[in-house]
């Protein structure tokens, strides 16, 4: 495992898992959201986003956290392993709520130099609510990744499906770096 993309529904624990994995492998960790989001919640253009993603995936060793389906041709060009964090809907939603509450209270900047922070309004009363996004994408993500794992087009990729926090912990503990 040298070039890894960790995927899963928002709130599933991709970032936490990815950071631990990159630490265990002593390799760079990249969060796709930090490549995508600009200051004041402005989105990067596809050209900007794809260029940033191409740069980080040109390295020989990395852990990349994020979905962004339109980026599959770029991020999976060199990937050797895709790890799907596939916890239950209840667990994923619990984690998403817990993270949102922490972010609202802490007012911690989400991605460096963006000033982007969670707010109660953004989390609960917005069409862009991360909790709503988690609910809307959970089942479609499950169907998509189940299909992708058996698609011949991706036969060069080792797929790993992790279905519980205990399994995630064991996976990282069993890695020989």
Automatic annotation (TrEMBL):
Pfam families tied to this protein: SKI
Annotated InterPro entries: Cytidylate_Kinase-2 (IPR052922), P-loop_NTPase (IPR027417), Shikimate/glucono_kinase (IPR031322)
Transmembrane segments: none
Keywords assigned: Kinase, Transferase
A molecular function GO annotation: kinase activity
Stored SUPFAM superfamilies: P-loop containing nucleoside triphosphate hydrolases
Name of the protein: Adenylate kinase
Organism: Photobacterium swingsii
